[in-house]
Automatic annotation (TrEMBL):
Species per Swiss-Prot/TrEMBL record: Cytobacillus depressus
HAMAP family: TruB_bact
Name the record gives this protein: tRNA pseudouridine synthase B
Listed PANTHER family: PSEUDOURIDYLATE SYNTHASE TRUB1, TRNA-PSEUDOURIDINE SYNTHASE
GO MF, any single term: RNA binding
GO biological process, one term: mRNA pseudouridine synthesis
Annotated active site: 38 (nucleophile)
Length: 305
């Protein structure tokens, strides 16, 4: 069994919990997830099976999309609904739809975020959440992330009340913390805030419609029709630029040969998927660090003769 199994991650489980459970269900060890989803977050978690674990990082590096809810009026230690309240301020302002839209527009494009203390980012070899659990606050490195779009999923013209909640849809780059984005929305409105709900609706090319729940996976496994829901390894890297080769070059690729970069890919500084004329990806290549005009394999995915 190999390929990508898009899982509908339930609330209350870590990404690692999901992998552990699937290893038991599928009775196989070579399984990996494609980027951490917090326990409170549900939605799309592509799971790599067998040889597809080699391409997990390319799904992780691809864009993501979420639907979430921000609550204005109090903030929490974890920046989501599971943490203890650290600041509370009754909302006395009334906001127009245009004011909310202006705030969302101001957070579109490249923004700078500071990862939350309750996150898996490493500082001095230790994950931030480990410091947080000990009550230690450390300096965190800020990072630039890209917010491609934010859409307000609320039809109201006026937003008022001692607490204000509204839903939004965001498309973003890897490394974006939607929890922190919710806090930033609150800051721009002048109030503490947190992310009260979040669903990942897309990861790379995988959407909610592709996903199976654990119960569905078990039933399909029992009925013998699970394989039809497992996506080919190629679906994980469909967003990468492609270089199509003939059978003669294919044999060289399987053996890790250095290749000349075709003219249309000379400006690519990221990974390139090298595929056969039948669309089977044999390897991931990148520009050679020492030999201009050439590219070398980063990962050989298939080397059978």
């Amino acid at each position: 069994m190999e390929g990508i199994l898009p899982l509908l991650k339930p609330k209350g489980m870590t990404s690692h919990d999901c992998v552990f459970k699937l290893r038991k269900i599928l009775k196989m060890k070579k399984i990996g997830h494609t980027g951490t989803l917090d326990p409170d977050v549900t939605g799309v978690l592509p799971i790599c099976l067998g040889r597809a674990t080699k391409v997990a990082e390319y799904i992780t590096d691809a864009g993501k999309a979420y639907e979430g809810e921000v609550t204005i009026g109090f903030s929490t230690a974890t920046e989501d609904s599971s943490g203890e309240i650290v600041e509370e301020k009754q909302v006395t302002s009334t906001f127009s739809r245009d004011q909310i839209l202006d705030v969302l527009a101001s957070l579109t494009g490249e923004i700078t975020q500071t990862p939350p203390m309750y996150s898996a980012v490493k500082v001095n070899g230790k994950r931030l959440y480990e410091y947080a659990r000990q009550g230690i606050t450390v300096e965190r490195p800020s990072r630039k992330v890209m917010i491609y779009s934010i859409e307000l999923l609320d039809e109201r013209d006026i937003f008022s009340g001692s607490l204000i909640r509204f839903r939004f849809r965001v498309s973003c780059s890897k490394g974006t913390y939607i929890r922190t984005l919710a806090v930033m929305i609150g800051e721009k409105l002048g109030y503490p805030a947190h992310m009260s709900e979040l669903v990942r609706i897309q990861s790379a090319d995988f959407t909610l419609e592709d996903c199976l729940k654990f119960e569905e996976i078990e039933k399909r496994l029992q009925d013998g029709n699970l394989l039809e829901k497992i996506k080919p390894l190629e679906s994980a890297i469909s967003h990468l630029p492609k270089y199509t080769i003939n059978d003669t070059v294919a044999e060289k690729v399987k053996n890790g040969a250095v290749l000349k970069i075709p003219g249309y890919l000379t400006n690519e500084d990221g990974p390139i998927a090298v595929e056969t004329e039948n669309g089977v990806v044999l390897a991931i290549y990148a520009q050679h660090p020492e030999k201009p005009g050439l590219m070398k394999p980063v990962k050989v995915l298939r080397n059978e003769t």
